Amino acid sequence: MGHRLPRRSLPPMMASAALLCLAMAALWPAASAAAMDDGCSSSVRRSPAASSSSSNKRKKQEEQKLWVFGDSYADTGNLGDLGRELTHAWYDPYGQTFPRRPAGRFSDGRVLTDFVASAMGMPTPVAYKVRRGARPGMLARGMNFAVGGAGVLDTGNFQRNISAQIDLFQALQAGPQRRRDNDNNNNTWTALVVVSGNDYSYASSGGASNDNNGTSAAIAYIPTVVRELREQLRRLRDEAGMKKVVVTNLHPMGCTPVFTRRINYTGCDPLANAGAAQHNAALESVLAALDPANRTFLLLDVHTPFAAFLLDAADDRDDNNGRFESPLRPCCESFSKDGYCGQQDEDGKPQYTLCGDPGRRFYWDDVHPTQAAWAAVADSFRTTVNNFLST
Ligand SMILES: *[C@@H]1O[C@H](CO)[C@@H](O)[C@H](O)[C@H]1NC(C)=O
Ligand SMILES: *[C@@H]1O[C@H](CO)[C@@H](O)[C@H](O)[C@H]1NC(C)=O
Ligand SMILES: *[C@@H]1O[C@H](CO)[C@@H](O)[C@H](O)[C@H]1NC(C)=O
Ligand SMILES: *[C@@H]1O[C@H](CO)[C@@H](O)[C@H](O)[C@H]1NC(C)=O
Ligand SMILES: *[C@@H]1O[C@H](CO)[C@@H](O)[C@H](O)[C@H]1NC(C)=O
After folding, report:
1. For the chain, what are the domain ranges?
2. What ligand 5 atom has the least distance to the C-alpha of 293?
3. CB neighbours of 244 closer than 8 A, spacing ≥ 6?
4. pTM of the model
5. Adjacent-strand bridge partners of 70
6. Which superfamily, per CATH, for 34-390?
7. DSSP-based three-state secondary structure for 358
């Protein structure tokens, strides 16, 4: 189930300038006005409504806080700009739909974090990396620690693993600013944990075992990954003070373009998908054991909507029957199979093709969904998330 991405698009953190992006994300009405004509409007228009009705059910006076831990499916700018080759998300054509320039999201626009926040009726929390530039009010709404390339365990490229991201959260809570804000009420704390497979990509590339047995090595790694994930989930509830923890399952990894390109996007890789299913079954058992009454943990099922859009469409028809045209084919595709979306030659000439309308595609690049895909996936969980957080 490995994909190559973490091997090339990883490293740590550096200073950056995602302020425009964050300012827009923080102001949903402004963002939605800007987004009306950009092909992503349906989901965006909905967010003000979500904020007025749903989330207020839970805590009228208390504002909810969302703390995000995970990888590039959730990162909104924590993986800094380390150059075009390593951190594509800071270069064209990333961000062309939102915020209309590359700003650190691994998509043409919004990512999972934005849609979960929207479902909660709140603005996207500030990315840790740019916390110093955030509007003061925004720091009271939580923070995003997720970083592209991260895994539950180390993935070989210096990103903070989930455990290190939680360490960072706890250090901030213990720090002087938190105490000054007198902000110790944890009744409204929700964690979002997004694990999308970097551990398995790393294992399948030989990183964990030093031999390259591909998908079977990744599958052998599942118990180790899920055991460590269990420990971090337990810790979020028992030690970090989270009142609710929303955790995603794995999407059908074998449908990502990095797997399907070699057969011209005509079908998914069954073994990688079986691995994802096995991870998901193990994760369900973990949650059932940690929280039999389903009080604290919610499994956010992204697998089912991904599969609905991708698996039935595996013959790559262009017949427009579905929500997405050629759903296995990425919008942004490098000329060379070892290239990447955003690649340029020495003269600055693009070495990739771009589809006409990312709003009609499911995958943006060889691993990451488009904003339109995330919006469609979010339609399937909006009510579930809301009901869970209202209890
Ligand atoms: C996570 O990262 C920390 C800090 O780099 C490291 O000490 C720890 O061993 C890592 N945890 C796992 C499970 O790999
Ligand atoms: C990799 O494959 C070889 C030969 O098929 C096998 O002996 C070895 O145990 C495998 N390693 C892993 C980690 O699966
Ligand atoms: C969260 O609140 C509970 C009381 O509801 C308290 O016992 C716990 O220490 C708090 N945890 C943190 C990390 O603030
Ligand atoms: C791949 O699929 C596209 C669209 O169906 C088609 O136009 C193209 O010729 C195919 N390429 C190969 C190498 O089969
Ligand atoms: C908790 O959720 C799981 C998975 O959705 C479900 O199978 C189980 O019946 C639920 N348990 C309770 C006590 O509601």
Report:
1. 34-390
2. 13
3. 189, 190, 191, 296, 297, 298, 388, 389
4. 0.84
5. 194
6. SGNH hydrolase (3.40.50.1110)
7. helix
